[in-house]
Amino acid sequence: MAVRALVTRLLHHPCLSVVGCLSAVLLAAPALAQTASTMRLGTNLTEVNDYSTDLPFVDVFKMARDWYTSAPGTFDTEEATRLDKDAQGWVRSLTPTAGPAVRYTKACTLIFSMGPVSGGALAGQYPYPAGAYVVRYDGEGTLAYGLAARQDAGQSAPGRDVINVTPQEPGIEICITATDPRGMGNPLRNIRVYPPGMEALAATEQFHPDFLARTQAFSVLRFMDWMRTNHSTQADASHRPLPTDHSYATERGVSAEVMVDLANRLGAMPWFNMPHAATDAYVTTFATVVRDRLASGRQVYVEYSNEIWNDQFSQGRFIGDQGVAQFAGQAGSDFDKRLNRFGERSAQVCQLWRSVFGAGADRVRCVMGGQAANTYIAETALDCPMSTLKPCRSRGFHGLAIAPYVGDHVGLPAYQATVQGWTTQADGGLAKLFNELNTGNELNDEGGGMPVVRQRIAAHATLARAQGVQLLAYEGGQHLVGVGAPADVDAINTLFDAANRDARMGTLYRAYLADWGSLGGGLFMHFSNVGSYSRFGRWGALEMGSQTASPKFDALMSVADTVHGARSNCLFDWAQGQFGSLFGQGSTAGTAPPYTYRLYGTGNALATSSADRQVWALGPVTGSVLVSVGAMADWVVTAGCE
User: Is 312 or 33 the better-scoring residue by pLDDT?
Assistant: First the structure.
């Protein structure tokens, strides 16, 4: 077959089902170690809540605020604890639980309680679309709609309402004004809300197409915020979140089942953060769900809690109290004891996961979290000299992870006057700000600019090598946010917003990620995928889920394409080296986004797609039919390219 004809067929043939012939041949071969770029790109996912500007689910009721109580003239009577709810969070009755009289007459929730984008090209736009939404529900009762929504009575029928939505702040209010009116044990429940055009899709897809499209390039998904890891209330296995929960925007967070489903859907590896108070039974139950549900052979990253050194989160104090009690009498500060307890519990969690996975224990990639500003935290936790498990690094750890943010010093109170002075310049201070981010020469702060970031990465890379683990970034990216008084200065917030929308931020990201890889960094988890800009930060690569481009997102996609190409070529080299009769006699390589391909002299061809993250084959070995032979995430591990 001519090369042009083969490329055309390879790239445009309709996708067919996976066949076993090539898969069986490849699986029979031992992995061959390859040298490939260690740099990989993942993303943290933004917390699911009613004000998130990301829309991850087809059913947007999964983003609904937990029920609040309301009465005529009072938006929230603050009596939610008196609501009679079932185990999934559905309101069984408006009759309050035992106790004094209540004022509320209805139970309500909000969806899309965010405001419009405050600036830039998207100024004035809302993250959710206008139009006719469909509300489906089971049971008997009455739903009322307000704020951005108006019911179309003519199009509505029992079990299915149509509401016309005109985006406005604070979003769509849905209230239960009557439920189970006949006392038949049939209350309103299983409420689903579908944006325009989404109702039919819900039969086969739980994740929003825009969300999938913006997330598919990332090879690992960190679910720290989906799990509500910071200040987590999770402890006992009996109270863990489930897919049947009425909303995923409560303090329980998103269930393991749904998170694994997303990883499977995108051909990605999940990264889970075990709650700081989780019992052994909780950890084991969670790990069992992942083992049984995650795609066969797929790796999973496991981290105990998040930033336990950071006292703004309750988990650090919790673990610190445990350490002080456990290691009483041993030499060292209370903080040392916190780190030793953290290292020990991280090791215990790792062992529990690996035990659950049994013969597949190597699929579990345990991560020890550190602090980018110093190596002492990670080194102490990995060594855990006070623990009987010492050294904790020997208990199956794959990597140590830091958050090498750039610019986290610019918003400190010490520099408020200087940074505010930048904003009076003709460009609003952008030139000064980017010079500081790139060189650190404007503020001359020991923690500022890329030179210091590079020093921190290099120091942790040295530590990782000494400890026999990989260096990872659990979070990273720009960190322009005011701390204390600067957070309330409009001019500084405007400067930080503008910088994140500026092309120079994309340039900075490309250089920053190149430095990360060249200095020995492996997997880099950007923080985060989607999020609005505010005084609390500009974390999202995109400002809303429907957005298709931004300087940060474009830079990340460029890096993702480079990483995808390197991993693809490693995989192709492996196939060629192992099976010369199938993939030998010379080759022609190329790219036609989203595909990277190689055409071999045998007439067979291999391709990978950054869109569906599959490995495709075509040629005599497949009967001249284009077939998928599985997820790229799995084959790069088999080939030793991971």
Answer: 312
Token pair belonging to 551: 């300087």
| Of the candidates 529, 509, 510, 513, the residue with the CA atom closest to the CA atom of residue 521 | 513
Other CB atoms within a 10 A radius of the CB of residue 585 amount to 13
Among residues 159, 168, 145, the alpha carbon closest in space to that of 199 is found at 159
Alpha-carbon gap, residue 496 to 505, rounded angstroms? 11
Cα distance between residue 532 and residue 513, in whole Å = 23
Predicted confidence (pLDDT) at residue 376 exceeds the cutoff of 70: yes
Q: Which two tokens stand for residue 170?
A: 């604070």
Could you tell me if 603 and 586 are in contact, meaning their C-beta atoms sit under 8 angstroms apart?
no
Compute the average pLDDT of residues 355-368: 98
Q: In whole angstroms, what is the distance from residue 620 CA to residue 596 CA?
A: 20
Question: pLDDT tens digits, residue range 587-642?
Answer: 888 888 888 999 999 999 999 988 888 899 999 999 999 899 888 888 888 888 87
Which residue matches tokens 């500022």? Answer: 448
The vertex-356 CA angle with 254 and 340, nearest 5°, equals 80
How many residues are given for the chain?
A: 642
Instruction: With a cut of 50, say whether residue 2 has pLDDT above it.
Output: no
Q: How far apart are CA 117 and CA 550, in angstroms?
A: 14
**E strands along 118-276, which residues?**
131-138, 141-147, 149-151, 160-165, 172-179, 189-194, 220-222, 269-274
Are the C-beta atoms of residues 214 and 542 closer than 8 Å to each other?
yes
Average pLDDT on 317-339 reads 97
Task: Say which amino acid occupies 277.
Answer: A
Instruction: Mark residue 577 as left, alpha or beta (left: phi above 0; alpha: psi -120 to 50; beta: remaining).
Output: alpha
Phi, psi for residue 420 in degrees, rounded to 5: -65, -35
Kind of pairing between the strands at 595-600 and 605-609: antiparallel
* Residue 129 DSSP label: -
Both tokens assigned to 554: 């474009």
Q: What is the pLDDT of residues 109-139, one digit of tens each?
A: 999 999 999 999 999 999 999 999 999 999 9
The tokens of 294 are what? 């995650």
> Tokens standing for 421?
């002075």
DSSP β-ladder status, 269-274 and 220-222: parallel
Task: Please answer whether residues 288 and 260 qualify as being in contact, where contact means their C-beta atoms are separated by less than 8 angstroms.
Answer: no
The strands making up 68-70's β-sheet, listed across from edge to edge, are 68-70, 106-111, 172-179, 141-147
Asked if pLDDT for residue 578 goes beyond 60, the answer is yes
pLDDT tens by residue, 216-241? 999 999 999 999 999 999 999 999 99
- Residue 381 sits at the vertex; the CA angle it makes with 376 and 384, to the nearest 5 degrees, is 115
**Edge-to-edge, what's the strand order for the sheet holding 627-631?**
587-592, 595-600, 605-609, 614-618, 627-631
DSSP assigned state of 427: T
**In angstroms, how far apart are the furthest CA atoms of the chain?**
84
Write down the pLDDT at residue 447: 67
pLDDT for 11: 41
Helix, strand, coil % in the chain, rounded to nearest 5: 35, 20, 45
488-506 pLDDT per residue, tens: 999 999 999 999 999 999 9
Task: State the pTM of this model.
Answer: 0.92
Closest CA to 219 of 478, 616, 546, 526: 526
Nearest to 399 by CA among 521, 243, 295, 507: 521
